[in-house]
């Protein structure tokens, strides 16, 4: 592995690939290439540290270290046994293997993980007369095995815990939105911290906190205690410290307002705990407020929210989405509003034509992230462009 010229693969959610690619370009990535739920790029070791610390829409950041073709389990084992594993880990370090297999020849990812584990252990036993231990929960070194038909790729996981685990979520509601998805939605919506922001159904506060982090240009992982790359043999602690300090020095003051409403006191309490954990009490205001009885208070205003639509949250009111539309039209003139939903029939009751529709997934639920532009006067509403598919 050449620390000056790493090939890097960054995983993300469906629909956020272009957002992630733009983030990576801005952070200095070279040869940025958009894939399905991933972005490939090149950079040095410092860049790898930087994107782990800063990229908001990255889920996992991996560095491929071995690629070969295998037609059967024996060749698979032999190629792995012959690899110099001690360049990447010490015999005293623990390791774990994640596996993704798309192959007719190798059908069981768990079995292939075990074969890879055997090859690594046998390599160390032969060379050092000692074996490293496997620790699936908290390994020092994490490998990812990817098999696509005959093509085998082994990568080092540089992140460790998935990067949506920002470190500020202490409480969550019935159907919390993933932090990476929340940040991706905000960037798709064009939120850049200029103006004011409202989440009128804020739940446990994820969109509010991610909006504040974008507004202040806080690194996405400012609260994270450790990354997998800190256990690598070539880890440069001094370089990582410099990168963190440089990013922290770029944090900017936010002069607008970020506000969250909810009608559920329990949710507001969860939100309050998370906002405090993110040290955002001075930036984010939350209050008990029924959105349907609210009026626009902030100018200019962007609204992004995740209304209830999952089977985990029951909506007793059949006209729930109609009320959203009525509130938009009557109480929020000249406002840009975005919402995400999987209930594509109910959302039609909003009664406004969305000016944009973006396909996203919230967990396994296929959703649409929709933009509504409210103008004063109904004529302008009818002149909105047709929604994208």
UniProtKB/TrEMBL annotation:
> Which GO molecular function terms does the record list?
RNA binding; rRNA (guanine-N2-)-methyltransferase activity; rRNA (guanine-N7-)-methyltransferase activity
Its protein name is DNA methylase
* Signal peptide as annotated in the record: none
**A Pfam entry, by short name:** RlmL_1st
Is Nucleotide-binding given among the entry's keywords? no
Can the keyword Lyase be found in this entry's annotation? no
InterPro entries on file:
DNA_methylase_N6_adenine_CS, RlmKL-like_Mtase, RlmKL-like_Mtase_CS, RlmL_1st, SAM-dependent_MTases_sf, THUMP_dom
PROSITE patterns given in the database record = N6_MTASE, THUMP, UPF0020
Cross-referenced SMART domains: THUMP
Give all residue intervals belonging to the THUMP domain: 47-158
Keywords, ordered alphabetically: Methyltransferase, RNA-binding, Transferase
């Amino acid at each position: 592995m050449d620390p000056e010229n790493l090939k890097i693969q960054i995983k993300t959610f469906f629909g956020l690939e272009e957002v992630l690619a733009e983030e990576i370009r801005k952070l200095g990535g070279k040869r940025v290439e958009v894939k399905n739920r991933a972005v490939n790029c090149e950079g040095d070791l410092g860049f790898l540290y930087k994107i782990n610390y800063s990229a908001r829409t990255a889920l996992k950041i991996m560095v491929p270290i071995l690629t070969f073709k295998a037609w059967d389990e024996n060749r698979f084992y032999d190629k792995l046994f012959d690899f110099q594993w001690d360049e990447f880990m010490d015999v005293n370090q623990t390791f774990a293997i994640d596996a993704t297999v798309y192959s007719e020849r190798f059908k069981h990812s768990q079995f292939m993980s075990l074969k890879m584990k055997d090859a690594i252990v046998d390599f160390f036993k032969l060379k050092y007369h000692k074996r490293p231990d496997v620790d699936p929960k908290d390994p020092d070194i994490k490998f990812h095995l990817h098999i696509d038909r005959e093509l085998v790729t082994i990568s080092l996981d540089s992140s460790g815990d998935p990067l949506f685990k920002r470190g500020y979520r202490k409480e969550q509601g019935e159907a919390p939105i993933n932090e990476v998805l929340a940040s991706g939605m905000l960037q798709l919506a064009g939120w850049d911290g200029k103006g004011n922001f409202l989440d009128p159904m804020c739940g446990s506060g994820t969109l509010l906190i991610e909006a504040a982090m974008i507004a202040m240009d806080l690194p996405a992982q400012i609260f994270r205690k450790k990354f997998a790359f800190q256990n690598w043999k070539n880890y440069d602690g001094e370089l990582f410290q410099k990168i963190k300090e440089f990013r922290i020095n770029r944090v900017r003051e936010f002069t607008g307002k970020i506000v969250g409403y909810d009608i559920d006191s329990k949710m507001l309490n969860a939100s309050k705990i998370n906002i405090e954990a993110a040290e955002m009490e001075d930036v984010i205001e939350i209050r008990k407020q029924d959105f349907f009885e609210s009026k626009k208070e902030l100018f200019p205003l962007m609204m992004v929210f995740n209304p209830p639509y999952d089977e985990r949250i029951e909506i007793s009111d059949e006209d729930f989405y109609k009320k959203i539309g009525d509130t938009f039209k009557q109480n929020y003139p000249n406002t840009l509003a975005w919402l995400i939903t999987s209930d594509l029939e109910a959302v039609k009751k909003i009664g406004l034509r969305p000016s944009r529709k973006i396909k996203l997934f919230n967990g396994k639920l296929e959703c649409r992230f929709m933009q509504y532009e409210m103008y004063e006067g109904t004529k302008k509403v009818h002149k909105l462009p047709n929604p994208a598919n």
